[in-house]
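Retro notes, structure queue

What went well: the backlog is down to a handful. What didn't: a couple of records were mislabeled last round, so from now on we paste the full input next to the output in the thread. Example, using Outer membrane lipoprotein BamD-like domain-containing protein from Blastopirellula marina:
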Amino acid sequence: MMKTTSILTICILSALPAVGCMSFGQQDPTPPPTSFSPVSQVSYEEEVQRGQSPDEAPPSSDRSWWDPTGVGQRALEVTGHNGQNKSLAKQLFAKGEALYEEGLEVEGAAREKKMLEAAGYFQRAALYQPGTAIEEDSLMYAGECFFFIDHYADATRQYDNLIKKHPNTKHLDVIDVRRFKLARYWLDRYTKDRPWAMQPNFTDEQMPTFDSFGNAIKLFDLIRLDDPTGDLADDATLAAANAHFREANFETADRFYTDLRQNFPTSEHQFNAHYLGVVTKMKVYQGPAYDGKPLEDAEKLLTRMKRQFPDKTQENIEVVEKLDYDIRAAKAQRLWYMASFYDQRSDYAGARHYYKKIVQQFPSSNMATTAKDRLAELEGRPDSPTPPGEFLYSWLDRRKDLPQASATPIENIATQPDRETDRR
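Corresponding output:
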């Protein structure tokens, strides 16, 4: 069994360098205007027992006398049966850190080779010290190795794994910036290439395997969920909303704009969230024949925007007035639709009600003039329409041919049992 496991492990590990070894020469995406600190360098020195000089410290190795090739140890790592070994974890981390530093100084294929090898050491180091600072830094360095050679999908998996195991990691700010940058880059590529919904990607290491748009939105969501008080949480919410707006997913965009207004009240994007929220609600509104709640919500939100941001409203007075005009026109059209509906049914009471509302609420509109003319034409007409075939109702009323109930009071009816009842 051990021999079979060792052979299988050799095959798996030999295939790893071949995966993602292609470099496409594309530049890193433009970072957002946010300052951040790079990953701090960490060196874990070997522990020395009391009374022992550093030169006398026993060397640590990932190979033992019973496994000189290291294949057995790799098999335990792959299957998750390796034990904790702090000394070995430090040694693996030191090797990975050295390769990482060398990789930053070179370019092209040489950098990719060193970074992939360094990522392997960091991943192995994390296995031997779960729940410790060594694991935290190892996972972060592994993600950075993949990031700097443009293996973006692999980098995001390492960042996700790090936050899953260390939710309050000290690297959270850097991860937020990395995620934001990658999400914007994937959205730009999606807008440019427009791949099919289920078109797989097996060649470009910069892009996810499926659904680049969905994965970009997921990164924005992870920024908001993993670090809701971070500097980029509100930026990620606005970016996700704008992405859905560009794709005409107006209901989803409206939810993101609403989330930004409610959960980030001190955000610098509040005015944009209000304005774009009004526009989105007008897009969600489908017309006078459908639900009018989006139109009502848009009017309330526009009123609140004018009250909360008077200066910015004045700066953008033209677009704000255009929105106000569109909302009033939609409301007038909705009243006219209702008046026409009742008018066509000859339900003149309902028609008069809505025509009068048009005249009262929109006196300066052309609809008000037409509504006044129609009200004059309806003068003297009955409120309710005459039922069709009314002359047939009396002929069809056959109630007089039916047997009538007795008018005898109930108390005059005999209550004593008759002979038939006694016999039964």
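Agreed that this is the format going forward. Reviewer comment attached to the example: The chain has 18 helices and no strands.
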